[in-house]
Amino acid sequence: MSLRFKKGRANSITPELLTDRRVQLLLGWFVQGDIETLQPVLDQEDGIRYPALDPIVDDPSGAEPFLESLVYNKILDKRACGYILSCKGCGAILSLEVEREDASNGDGPNPTFESKMRCRRCGSNSTIDESSLRPVYSYTIHPDAIEVASSMLLVKPLLDFLSERGFTTHSPGILTGNSDIQHIFDIIAYPEGREDRSLAIDFAISHQAHGEAPVIAMFAKSYDCNPFKSLLVAIPRLTKSAKLLAKQYGIECLETKDTEGLWKKLIRAIPPAAKMDFETLDVMTLLALPDHLRKTASIVCDEGRITARGVSDVTRRSRAVESGYLNQLVQMGYLRKDRGGRRVYFSVREEDE
Ligand SMILES: [Zn+2]
Fold first, then answer.
1. How far does residue 123's CA lie from ligand 1's centre (Å)?
2. Is 3 a residue whose pLDDT tops 50?
3. How far is the CA of 80 from the centre of ligand 1 (A)?
4. What is the pLDDT of residues 99-156, one digit of tens each?
5. For 154-275, which CATH class?
6. If you measure from the C-alpha of residue 131 to the centroid of ligand 1, how many angstroms do you get, rounded to a whole number?
7. Which residue from 221, 291, 333, 346 has the fewest beta carbons nearer than 10 Å?
């Protein structure tokens, strides 16, 4: 299996399209068999909605243009699967009639609405005729897109790899941050029952080197959620400055041009689920920490037990900043936290704790 993009194929899954993570996830669901057909439903508030798209489309009104663009690019096929009936007075959607797939006689569905319907929004009575009906569509993956998608997509094989390593997986996966904001990662994996040991993975796929943007996005989400480990998979690679930034932020990045290289690197980067455990803070670990955390961690090592104020007196960074770093080190498992009266103390976690 190779990730190299083939040019001049009949279908149009271009690298540009694959850089859209919505496209990646949607294709992944089709290829994995999680979705067979995207079917519309009528939602009292949002009108026509494709529930399967909820995790990737922020606004239900964006679903149809998104799907149509995929039809245009021969990634999806569409089929008239029913009609929606709109109020002539205010345009509100009154009803959706979807035909069962096996009931289709080839001519498309025949509408069987009442001859008159009263609108709940504006109260007017609509006489039903051609002008109040509009077809709705269901979408399936275009046959030619399946092969290309399955070889290009990483999500499915990576989920398999993680399952083999003993992880429970979610794609996309959601973690709630300290801010109570829910952040979406392309994959969240954790040893069974140990959601506090979450591995958060995002993909950045392009036909050229990535700048800082995916690194910054990963940092912002990880800073808020403190996953046990964050991994950014960059295809084909990051720019030099993006790599430096990732190092500074403590974001682990994995660059790869093809899937074979990816597996070799993943085996090194992702331990078996049973080994996803806290490490003790030794010299090597200290050296591997990003600068801003290393400074804080070293002071705790020197002092044994110390408050955020105590650390901030040494580093001259604000107490709030040190408190953030200390809590991050607690989440990472390097430090422990205890209370002495009204103060919160941080100390180094012992090996067998
Ligand atoms: Zn109306």
1. 6
2. no
3. 25
4. 765 544 545 555 566 677 788 888 888 777 777 788 899 999 987 777 667 556 677 7
5. alpha beta
6. 14
7. 291
